[in-house]
Write a structure and sequence with these properties.
With about 240 residues, this protein is of the alpha/beta class. About 40% of the residues lie in helices and about 20% in strands.
Length: about 240
């Protein structure tokens, strides 16, 4: 009898955090149908505990939660080295721009407003989970620019030999700019290559992530140049 040599792909686990049972049921049904494993939490405190224990591949986090709300929960998870690299999509009924920007500034990787299309949500999840996969000819294994070292193989960024903790999106954004050193990347191009969006999305998403990335790079932030009216560029020479 021939031995089955097929390789099984590890099932990705999604943590769904919402205090509305109907909403959880809908999202869980669509995620399982798409081939994901699902764990759930009803409040922010439970979400943080389960995220730290299970280390899911992605978190869907509602903003309006009891105990600890989604914004505070997002900040806690992104400031914890054990969970900081887990992508977070905020789910909320709030559509105001200030709420979207606040969520992104706290570390969220994406933001979906209720009611949303399950198909669109699944697409955004797939895009986030695929961000670490980059073509070998596009993303060098290691890039060194002045005090900054971007190591794609180890998924690590150093500034003056000190490790800088970045989210998955921040790392992909920095890697993309650094690998194209000296070339201007407009916001729409970055949305396609970093976020995986084929259609136009609010470009404030890019600006918010760039601001947060610069804050984390500290004195080396000057290597990320803003080209007025065009986009962003990783500095070609030493500062």
């Amino acid at each position: 009898m021939c031995q089955d040599l097929s390789i099984k792909t590890r099932v990705k686990t999604i943590l769904v955090v919402d205090d509305e049972p109907d909403a959880v049921e809908l999202v869980e049904f669509n995620l399982r149908a798409a081939g994901y494993s699902v764990i759930t939490a009803e409040d922010g405190a439970e979400a943080i505990a389960k995220a730290r224990k299970a280390l899911p591949d992605l978190i869907l986090l509602d903003v309006m939660l009891p105990e600890i709300d989604g914004m505070a929960g997002c900040k806690i998870l992104k400031n914890d080295p054990a969970t900081s690299s887990i992508p977070i999509i905020m789910l909320t009924a709030k559509a105001a721009e200030i709420d979207r920007v606040l969520g992104l500034e706290l570390g969220a990787d994406d933001y979906v407003t209720k009611p949303f299309s399950p198909r669109e949500l699944i697409l955004r999840i797939k895009n986030l989970l695929n961000r670490r996969v980059s073509p070998a000819n596009e993303m060098p294994v290691k890039i060194v620019a002045g005090p900054i070292t971007v190591d794609s193989e180890r998924h690590e960024v150093l500034v003056n030999e000190e490790k800088v903790v970045l989210t998955a999106t921040e790392f992909k954004l920095l890697s993309t700019l650094a690998s194209r050193r000296g070339r201007v990347q407009d916001r729409e191009q970055l949305l396609r290559d970093v976020w995986g969006y084929e259609s136009y999305i609010d470009t404030r998403t890019v600006d918010t992530h760039m601001r947060r990335l610069r804050d984390k790079l500290g004195a080396a932030a000057g290597y990320l140049e803003t080209v007025r009216g065009m986009g962003y560029r990783f500095c070609e020479g030493d500062l």
